[in-house]
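Good day; I would like, with your permission, to put a structural problem before you. A protein sequence and the structure tokens that stand for its backbone fold form the material at issue. The record follows directly beneath this note:
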Amino acid sequence: MGTRTMRFALLGAMSAGVVFTQQACADGTAVEPVAAPAASETTAATAASPSETESTSPDEGAVPVCKTADLEANITLQPDSTGDTRKGLVTLTNKSDIECGVHGRAAIALKNPADEVVDVPTENVEEPGESIRTALKSGSSVYQGIKWTICDKGDSTCGAGNTLVFSLDGSTDAKPAKLSNFPAPEKNEITMKSLQIGTIQPSRQGVVAW
């Protein structure tokens, strides 16, 4: 094959998406062309699977919504509480046998020894940010923070009680939460002048840092 003819053949092969590994062997025999991989094949190999995020951030309706009865709450008084401010880490654990979805926040309320809800001014806050919709597998947990101002039980505007209860948004079936590092229930010394409730998050990182 002449030099000019061979050059045109090479250009034609390259325009068709064919790449030569080298021009020719030492004995002058032409090397078989190797086709370049299709762009769609490369994309398919490197694309992330959508299922990698569905287990922690499912679409609404992908799993049934958790009910208050499905969960257990443990509220731990934080050691870095200072002055009149107290913080609590709320851990919500799925105690049912099925996966269910949580989003928003769990309502928290103070109760007195007569099992009555104590009237405490309460504010829902977007802390540490917007709630992340989470599919909660059986035995796994999500977290939210609460912050309140303590007060003197002798003050008529001060709410006092001995336990905290929780329920999911729209629920009326509140359940007692397990309390850690709080005063003994018989002392009735949980006081609240006001309460703020943060949002449910899949990780405890930063949940009470506000």
The radius of gyration is 31 Å. Confidence is low (pLDDT under 50) at residues 2-55. Residues 68-197 form a domain with the Immunoglobulin-like fold (CATH 2.60.40).
